[in-house]
Specification:
Elements lengths: L2 H17 L6 H26 L34
């Protein structure tokens, strides 16, 4: 399945969920919503590998990454330890 086909399927599932009407029976309504949520999660799991890996930022010279995006590095203050009395 291509990425575009998966995105289209996710869109169709979300539209189906919006059109879902309450039947008045809580168990049936919850089961229907759970089915839609499982289907959307399944489609998203299929889509992730097709999108690829998140780009990692590498440190460069003068606060600029290799991609030309500027960044700043902030140091965290060390947590103060309680002194034993």
């Amino acid at each position: 399945m291509s990425a575009h086909a998966i995105v289209t399927a996710i869109e169709e599932e979300s539209l189906a969920l919006c059109r879902l009407r309450a039947t008045g029976r809580q168990d049936v309504d919850l089961a229907a919503r759970d089915h839609h949520c499982r289907r959307i999660r399944s489609l998203i799991r299929q889509l992730r590998p097709l999108i690829g890996i998140v780009e990692k930022r590498s440190f460069g010279i003068r606060g600029e990454s290799t991609k030309g995006v500027s960044f700043t590095v902030a140091r965290r203050a060390r947590a103060k330890q309680a002194r034993a009395a």
